[in-house]
Amino acid sequence: MIRRSIIPLAFVAISLVLGGCATARTVAGEPTPKEEGAVPAEGAAVETAEAAATETPPADTPAETIEGPGATEAAAAPPPAPPPAAAAMFIPTGKPQIVGRFEKVQFPAWVERAGVRAGIKAGWAVFTSDRIVTGGDGRVEISTAGAGRLKIGGDANVEFTEAYEFTGGAVEPSFFKVNRGPFLFAAPLVRAGGSGTLVEVGGAINVNVMGGQIVGRTDSQESLVALVDAVVRVSGPKLNPGTMREPQTFLRVPRAGRAQPVTAAGSTNMARWLSAAQVASSRPALSADGQWDVSLNSGYNLRQLEDMACRIQRRGISTEIYPVKEPGKLTWYRVVVRRFATKGDAVNFMGTAKALGSKEPWVLVPQS
């Protein structure tokens, strides 16, 4: 997705990190720190980090606003803003496009779309312009076109780029931007001469993934990208463009100060970075193909049930309200959290359900 030229470097420098457990080396063609790279003031870095950490209060909107009949129209994003200068040769299409699907979700996790925030339900489509936000224990796994996979860890903020139409320019917009938190991204291999998938990490590292798997994170102190097994082209405000291709190496760009040369990561660091974006086996998870549901409350008073659903949505847990019609009786309604990955996940959610105000939650038997 990016067509920037790669500038080879004319020197090779090798240095050892104190302690002898990793090497920091620069080889021809790799991204390296810019000697004249501008260093932002510490105050500016803190201000940017604080702004990124501030979350907009969720809207008091029930789950039906996001999913249900006419959901595509209701959830359509407003007309995108003009593209940034770097993508001046692209124009917004005006209509969001589906770019993936939520495969797995752990609470709390929200999707923001068209000014509405709701707890993510596994199985929902992911659109351009969507923003994914997770709490400390939240995890989200998304399948993308071409057998790609994006995993988002806790305390994260990831923004999918608006849908753009190509007009003949040399630079394409990124697929998504990681504004905060850990992530893991796997992309299909690109044929020779093809363009990869551009990912922006913390405004400090532009990663054009030509194929394979990368892991990274960004916070108020630094942005980091590591290769599990991939080939990527890297650039950024503090970096000379180059290519990374050696497994278990990483690139670090601090908010204040110069970027660091590509360095061997070591198995301990790789394991820590990978686990930060993975779904945790110790907590209940929703799955796109899950068949187990938990009923939280039921009754005839739809307004009260909607209030309960909205309150739970604000906690980053997806809820649905659906009618139950029985012959000869009035229609009643049920508030449900749907699509738990396993029966065990549904049972383990019962304690949380009671904490959310459910007096008698129960696990619903899947319908054949």
Count the E strands: 25
Distance between the termini: 44 Å
CATH class of the largest domain: Mainly Beta
Oligomerization category of the chains in this entry: single chain
Helix/strand-derived category reads: mainly beta
Total domain modules: 2
Helix content: 10-25%
Q: Label the CATH architecture of the largest domain.
A: Sandwich
In terms of DSSP E residues, the strand content is 35-45%
What is this structure, in a nutshell?
This protein is mainly beta. It is 14% helix and 39% strand. It has two domains: 13-275, Jelly Rolls (Sandwich), CATH 2.60.120; 290-364, Alpha-Beta Plaits, CATH 3.30.70.1070.
Features:
single chain; 368 residues; mainly beta; Jelly Rolls; Alpha-Beta Plaits; 2 domains; 17-stranded mixed beta sheet; four-stranded antiparallel beta sheet; 6 helices
